[in-house]
Amino acid sequence: MSRPAHRRPECHKINKDLLVLTYGALVAQLCEDHEKDEDVNKYLDKMGYGIGTRLVEDFLARSCVRRCHNYSEITHIIAEVAFKMYLGVTPSVTCNNSSKNAFSLILDKNPLSEFVEELPAGRSSLCYCNLLCGIIRGALEMVHLAADVTFLQDRLKGDRVTEIGITFLKQPKERKSQRRK
């Protein structure tokens, strides 16, 4: 039986709740496997980095974003397009320094920690959503932008908001466009 020509193929998307619960189970397993929070944080960052290096191709193909000319534009694309596309939230963006290479993404609501009320006992150094930092860092690296991405504040640690800091490590090279005639 064939599908009518006017119907588009259905996109099978993972249920957000299933993703969040699966992520919670992953973090719980990592906490069982590793005694130190730093080891869990590194592992989550490494996993996120691998996801980010692969996800950037999908993002560029689906989002149709144009070339960015400064770090502010890049950070706004991450917040307004990528976070909305993949997590269904839009963090606010603030610039943290005068050289305009450090920004914060402020999440009023973090989908990955939606069903988590507090960190496990004895895990105060755990960065529960460190996967996000790795994803952002990996995606940026794939478009030749080195960045340091870390959690600055986390609601799970008693802060008012969740804040991810992005510091771009290299100044962009000014390119003069030359048209060939």
From TrEMBL:
From which residue to which does any coiled coil extend?
none
Listed InterPro entries: Bet3, NO_sig/Golgi_transp_ligand-bd, TRAPP_component
Q: Where in the cell is it found?
A: Endoplasmic reticulum; Golgi apparatus, cis-Golgi network
Q: Which domain of life is it from?
A: Eukaryota
Query: Which keywords does this Swiss-Prot/TrEMBL entry list?
Result: Endoplasmic reticulum, ER-Golgi transport, Golgi apparatus, Lipoprotein, Palmitate, Transport
One GO cellular-component annotation of the UniProt record comes to: endoplasmic reticulum
One Pfam family matching this protein? TRAPP
User: Known CDD domains for this protein?
Assistant: TRAPPC3_bet3
A GO BP term here is: Golgi vesicle transport
What quaternary arrangement does the UniProt entry report?
Answer: Homodimer. Component of the multisubunit TRAPP (transport protein particle) complex, which includes at least TRAPPC2, TRAPPC2L, TRAPPC3, TRAPPC3L, TRAPPC4, TRAPPC5, TRAPPC8, TRAPPC9, TRAPPC10, TRAPPC11 and TRAPPC12.
The record describes the protein's role as:
May play a role in vesicular transport from endoplasmic reticulum to Golgi.
Give the family from UniProt: Belongs to the TRAPP small subunits family. BET3 subfamily.
**Protein known as:** Trafficking protein particle complex subunit
Source species:
Cavia porcellus (Guinea pig)
* Chain's gene name: TRAPPC3L
